[in-house]
Automatic annotation (TrEMBL):
Pfam families: 4HBT
Keywords carried by this UniProt record: Apoptosis, Cell membrane, Cell projection, Cytoplasm, Fatty acid metabolism, Hydrolase, Lipid metabolism, Membrane, Transit peptide
UniProt key word Membrane: yes
Originating species: Amycolatopsis viridis
Reactions catalysed: hexadecanoyl-CoA + H2O = hexadecanoate + CoA + H(+); decanoyl-CoA + H2O = decanoate + CoA + H(+); octanoyl-CoA + H2O = octanoate + CoA + H(+); dodecanoyl-CoA + H2O = dodecanoate + CoA + H(+)
Superkingdom assignment: Bacteria
UniProt EC number: 3.1.2.2
Thioesterase domain boundaries: 76-139
Subcellular location: Cell projection, Ruffle membrane; Cytoplasm; Membrane
Database matches in SUPFAM superfamilies: Thioesterase/thiol ester dehydrase-isomerase (SSF54637)
Top class in the EC scheme: hydrolase
Membrane topology: Peripheral membrane protein
UniProt feature coiled coil, ranges: none
Designated name of the protein: Acyl-coenzyme A thioesterase THEM4
Amino acid sequence: MSDERRPANPWPPVETQRPEIHPKAPGPGTDLEMHYTECFGCGDVDNGLHIHSTVGESGVVHSRFPVTRAHQGAPGLAHGGLLACAFDEALGSTVGNLLRRPAVTGKLETDFLRPVPVGTTLFIAARVDGVAGRKIYASADGHLNSADGPVAVRARGLFIQVGLEHFTTHGDADALAKFTQAPRLRHDDWDINP
Ligand SMILES: CCCCCCCC(=O)SCCNC(=O)CCNC(=O)[C@H](O)C(C)(C)COP(=O)(O)OP(=O)(O)OC[C@H]1O[C@@H](n2cnc3c(N)ncnc32)[C@H](O)[C@@H]1OP(=O)(O)O
């Protein structure tokens, strides 16, 4: 089904405030480091997605996902779940880097408009659309092979701001300690009170 014929639900679905880019957010042109080396989306992981992101103008973050044979669902085509994963990464990175508020994905929806063949690179442009308390709404378009190529996938995500105890309680506290020691992630540069 073409994009125009898909039902369009209002987005954001609730009244929101305009997102405020954090004063210490990386500026346009900044290549974002992997947020965690073991992240399947952006980390140095065998057969991971190896997504690289750069901050663009006007609150847009540009991410690139090189689709390889390791990412197939149907022969020669990207797996839909891994495409959704790429958008989770791109949207989460956009929220984290621009707002500097620790947040986790609460809801993620994807529209698959065109097949994404192995060997293509998906150029994902993501932005934060609005904020309502702890709820952060973000969306992204994924273009085939160039920033202005045809849109193959669209995604919308709701991210919920959490305290750092979310990660120490449910995750690996030692890994989190290393993660937060990275200069780019210094606690005092983040808004950590949800
Ligand atoms: C730089 C970093 C990049 C990282 C990119 C990758 C990001 C990820 O993949 S994160 C991993 C996947 N996500 C998770 O593991 C999250 C698991 N879920 C949870 O831990 C909890 O459900 C959590 C924290 C999201 C929300 O729980 P909790 O803190 O109790 O908040 P809760 O009161 O339920 O929800 C807060 C608000 O969000 C709303 N909300 C929560 N989930 C949803 C949902 N799925 N749909 C709609 N609204 C929702 C609630 O209705 C509530 O709204 P309101 O304030 O208006 O009443």
